[in-house]
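Annotated sample (chain length 420).
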Amino acid sequence: MAAASSTKLRCLYASSVKKVHPPSLTGLSRHYATANSDSSTTPSLADKAPTRRRSTTFQDKLNAGPSFADFVSGDDAPLSPSEAYKFETVMAGPAGRKKEYTRLPSWLKTPIPDSQNFKRIKNDLRGLNLHTVCEEARCPNISDCWGGSDKSSATATIMLMGDTCTRGCRFCSVKTSRTPGPLDPHEPENTAEALSRWGLGYVVLTNVDRDDLPDGGAHHVAETVMKIKQKKSSILVECLTGDFKGDLDMVAVLARSGLDVYAHNVETVEALTPQVRDRRATFQQSLRTLEAAKRANPSLITKTSMMLGFGETESQMWDALRQLRASDVDVVTFGQYMRPTKRHMAVHEYVTPDKFELWKQRALDMGFLYCASGPLVRSSYKAGEAFIENVLKKRRSGSGAADGMPSRTGSGLVVDEITK
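Output written by the structure step:
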């Protein structure tokens, strides 16, 4: 009975509700709050005529500029050396006190280091508490030297005895102090360990001057060389070191430690040495250092480096090269001096690449075994290292000249042959 009455109520409710059909979309028009109340419809977007976009200043300049054919026509004559090497200047400074500055030439600009290999080498160095002259001296080649395709093709110049020097040369950005911290007794072992990880065939060690030590740190550097040779006897070691306060006995200690290349930089010509280097360093003392290294170990390759751009004259350069050859120096490099900070010596001249090439040829004609010369060349330059490595390997294999040294006559031919 109850079920029948429930069914009847549902039927009555269904019949009383009218079916509501959704409105047709075709008869609808959209109204906006901002539209006029008297307009019942709004024109569609399709009914509006397209408006022409206003021309911009950039577009006008682009249309009036050179076409693609102007770039590939090849009608323009190449720039002359004077035009190509013309320096750009810029006015900078506060209003009313602007000064003219010379922009860095294009041939001295290098990329910012960001490769994975660069980061790996840096992590290895920090983990072993080691320093490099690449970082401390703000070398512009750090991206190239550390950023090789693998660690075996990279070059990092390890700086021994800390990161603080007792001398204050006007061109150098390494920190200075009269009383640096004590030497790290684990540094020789850590350095040998780092270099064995990288699997290098040629390594460069350098060091700060430590005039506060009785031996100038000579025994510390010599111990590092011996540790490296113990781990891998085939590795070639170059030491870019100081003059040890003129103590030639300490020079002999390092020269007999097992290293292959003894490098000591004269930095500049003799006439400018008092203005460029620390007062305790002299041009003649540097020559005596290189001569003593060769006397202590005649099989050593001796090497030095000079920076251009201090204001040196051509006659002063010739005089410096003659004295270096008289001291039986084998390798010389030339590079552009670049001012690290405003506190350092100002650049007198940006030397052009053509002039660097000229001095390279002059050095080879004088009988130097090898010369690396260019705006970005530094003492520890891997192109030079590759050449010296080939020379030393030829000596070991006995395929060199009778005395183990490639002939100095026809130096250009010797360079080409060994580079091949």
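Annotation: The CA atoms of residues 185 and 220 lie 8 Å apart.
Annotation: The mean pLDDT is 76.
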